[in-house]
Design brief:
Layout (H helix, E strand, L loop, with lengths): L5 E9 L1 H10 L10 H6 L9 H16 L4 E9 L7 E13 L2 E10 L2 E11 L3
Antiparallel strand pairs: 1-3, 2-5, 3-4, 4-5
Length: about 130
Amino acid sequence: MNIGDTLPPLEIPVTRTLIVAGAIASRDYQDVHHDAALAQEKGSPDIFMNILTTNGLVGRYVTDHLGPHAVLRKVAIRLGAPNYPGDTMTLSGTVTAVSGSTVEIRVVGANGIGHHVSGTVTAEVPA
């Protein structure tokens, strides 16, 4: 891998099931991640994806590209536009640093209303 290399984009359909399953799997029982009526009472048009699900999807995106032996050493992300059901999030990545067996990848996830996630992932890729 070289600085400037890009990862192929990954399109992830944002379904209601994905949002709710991700919240349950990460033990995030906040109503805005599973109850549309309560999310609307709090000012959201619908339920939305939690950061832990997004974090997992970003990690999956990188390890799918780097292979099964890659070890994530650091994931530093920031959320932006919410991921609502019925949208698609497209993840893209660019290699920003390489040092020995360690690689840093800048990841962006965009949906129909903007950037949902941005940040960096540092991974070790054994030879």
